Amino acid sequence: MLENWYPTAEEGKNKGVLLVVTASKEGAVTGGEGFNQAVGEELIEDIISTNIPIFTEEEKYNASVVSSVERLEAKLLGNSVPGEQGEGEGEGEGGTGGERGFRGLLEACAGFGA
């Protein structure tokens, strides 16, 4: 996909694309080699299998994009990634740290409309 936008692999290697298809309620995250290495396959899979399906099922397309971009941005900046496993203060009431982090992200994005 990036080959169509950037004339050389060098120009597109650090670029990424987030796609949300409202008609089918699906999405994708892809990018050049540098982007994919920096973000990591685990986060990309988590966004595709968690963020996008949850929000698009509720027809909260903006929230799907905002939450996904926030997670990608956090990872690229070296910050704690919302919803990432191990986030929070461990297990206890309310689930694992990662579950609490993702629930908090869901609540934060709940105000975004379709």
Question: Can you summarize this structure?
Answer:
By secondary structure, the protein is mainly alpha-helical.
Chart the SSEs and their pairings.
Elements: H1 9-12, E1 16-21, E2 26-31, H2 33-39, H3 41-57, H4 61-77, H5 97-109
Antiparallel strand pairs: 1-2
Helix pairs in contact: 3-4
**What's the CATH C level?**
Alpha Beta
- In this structure, how is the largest beta sheet organized? 2 strands, antiparallel
Number of domains: 1
Mean of all residue-level pLDDT scores: 80
Poorly predicted residue ranges? 86-102
Task: Report the end-to-end length measured between terminal Cα atoms.
Answer: 26 Å
What is the alpha-carbon Rg in Å?
A: 15 Å
Features:
5 helices, 2 strands, Diaminopimelate Epimerase, Chain A, domain 1, two-stranded antiparallel ribbon, 114 residues, 51% helix, mainly alpha, globular
Mind explaining what this structure looks like?
- There is one protein chain.
- Helix 3 runs antiparallel to helix 4.
- Mean pLDDT is 80; it is low at 86-102.
- This protein starts with 8 loop residues before the first helix and ends in a 5-residue tail after the last helix.
- The chain has one domain: Roll (Diaminopimelate Epimerase, Chain A, domain 1), CATH 3.10.310.
- It has a two-stranded antiparallel ribbon.
- The chain has helices spanning 9-12, 33-39, 41-57, 61-77, 97-109; strands spanning 16-21, 26-31.
- It is 51% helix and 11% strand.
- A hairpin with a 4-residue loop joins strand 1 (16-21) and strand 2 (26-31).
- The protein has 114 residues and is mostly helical.
